[in-house]
Design brief:
By secondary structure, this protein is of the alpha+beta class. Helices cover 57% and strands 16% of the residues. It has a five-stranded mixed beta sheet with strand order 6-8-9-11-10. Strands 1-4-3-2 form a four-stranded antiparallel beta sheet. The two termini are 35 Å apart.
Length: 395
Amino acid sequence: MNTLRGKINLIFSLVFILLVLLFVASLQYQEHRSQEEYIRQERENSHYLYLYFLKYGKIDEGYLESQNIRLIKGKEQSGLIEKFSKDEEGKSHYRVIIYKYRRFMLIDNERFKLLLENMNKPSFIVELLLIFAAALLLLLMLYLWIIRSLKPLSELKEKIKTFSEGNLDIECHSDKRDEIAAVANEFDQAVKMIRELIHSRQLFLRSIMHELKTPIAKGRIVSEMVSDPKQKDRLHRTFIRLDLLINEFAKLEQITSKNFHLHIESYPIDRIIQEGIGLLMLEDSEEMIDIKKVDNFTMQVDIELLSLVIKNLLDNAIKYSTDKRVHVLLESGAIKISNRGNKLPQDIESYFAPFHQSEGGLGLGLYIVKSILDIFHMRLEYQYTDGINHFIIHQ
């Protein structure tokens, strides 16, 4: 009963039960009063008939007809009299039975013996049924009206869910004047502002990346004119590295804005690791990175994104290691990247924030790693044992 709809259902269920109980109590009360009224009326009629018979020596059938009471005669009388109790001790001059939902009374005294049927029917049952039906109909209409009023709230919930999944092209504007419409209109304004901010940010970042691409391209052309092969190769690698960084920023912008399409396939772990190492563009990667594969397994991922995760973890491990060596262990469906160095001064979760204060970097490496792993529903675990940092990717 934590939902608003559940609470409303509970309230209306209780009201319905109370309404039924009230109807039953009213029915019993009116039936009790009706029985008392029957007894009073029938005793008065019996007394009148007795006095009339003493005076005129006959039964006043006109009076019975005016009281809507039928005089039963003949075979019908004989058959019905047998239904009355034959207990002589409990025998009285006036007795009543209910037979087949009909009320019969037997007047038996020293003057006459009459069997009468009281044709009067209580009207309170119909009246109570009409009142109960009207109240039930009103309750049902009120329930449907309230539930219908909550329908925009369910629609707003679905739109918020769609918005949280990265779809900014939603509209929640409402022309109604209730509180739900007010919330929907405020959220609609917020969506528009966020959409404009994201579009502005995307335009800004893309403009910067576009402007940086031009000098990088010119630098690569100029590096081809350097006569010293060693310097030429270094310049060439530097500009390629800058170009890769720009591409990483572009990928980061797509990830954070959720403006990308995944290409999920099953890849062997060897290929994923090699793709990540390739992005580092190291001259002597085999001397710096030691790979040990215990299990041969695959991962259902977008290799372009996960290789970027491997690249960032390896890059950080090499940069902050004391011996410039990294060990990669592939075991039990997990990837463990280890390096010898100092323990992280803060909790691992604090490094998942963008532009975290970090020496020698922008503080985006683990933010990118965490953002991508969240997409694949993977997690990153950090351990520090015996002077060695361990970063473990679990599927």
